[in-house]
């Protein structure tokens, strides 16, 4: 399944493979056998993969059906400021609550990611 190839490459942080697959017509929002898209499973610290997926039309606001988490929730929770910024620049909604009724900034607070908290507060996003 093509979506599985893309999500696997994104999860591994294999930028070259992600680019190759996108250039060869794999849809960025295709769902893998686990019901996830590449932007949901990507290596959150790899902003180049985020950039590629977004460039090819990945939806930055897709939410996990069981947890309600979006990619910006995941990036904020893990403290990946550059990825948070990339997602926000590409219209990720930071005012969406997850299944625990938490915003991305709340997850950053839970995990002590002060730089992410400061960015989300200062940009009022």
Rg, nearest Å: 14 Å
Query: How would the global form be characterised?
Result: globular
Total number of domains? 2
Specify the structural class. Answer: mainly alpha
Which residues sit in consecutive blocks of at least 5 with pLDDT less than 50? none
| C-alpha end-to-end distance | 36 Å
Name the CATH homologous superfamily of the largest domain: Ankyrin repeat-containing domain
Mean pLDDT: 95
What portion of residues is helical?
A: 40-55%
At CATH level 2, the architecture of the largest domain is Alpha Horseshoe
The major beta sheet can be summarized as: none
List SSEs in N-to-C order.
HHHHHHHH
CATH topology name of the largest domain: Serine Threonine Protein Phosphatase 5, Tetratricopeptide repeat
Number of extended strands: 0
CATH class division of the largest domain: Mainly Alpha
The proportion of strand residues reads under 5%
- Tally the helices: 8
């Amino acid at each position: 399944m093509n979506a599985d190839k893309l999500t696997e490459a994104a999860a591994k942080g294999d930028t070259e493979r992600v680019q190759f697959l996108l250039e060869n017509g794999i849809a960025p929002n295709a769902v893998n056998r686990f019901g996830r898209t590449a932007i949901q499973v990507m290596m959150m610290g790899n902003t180049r993969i985020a950039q590629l997926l977004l460039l090819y039309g990945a939806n930055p606001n897709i939410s996990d059906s069981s947890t309600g988490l979006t990619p910006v929730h995941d990036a904020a929770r893990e403290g990946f400021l550059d990825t948070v910024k990339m997602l926000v620049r590409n219209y990720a909604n930071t005012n969406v609550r997850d299944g625990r009724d938490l915003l991305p900034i709340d997850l950053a607070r839970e995990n002590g990611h002060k730089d992410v908290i400061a960015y989300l507060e200062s940009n009022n996003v």
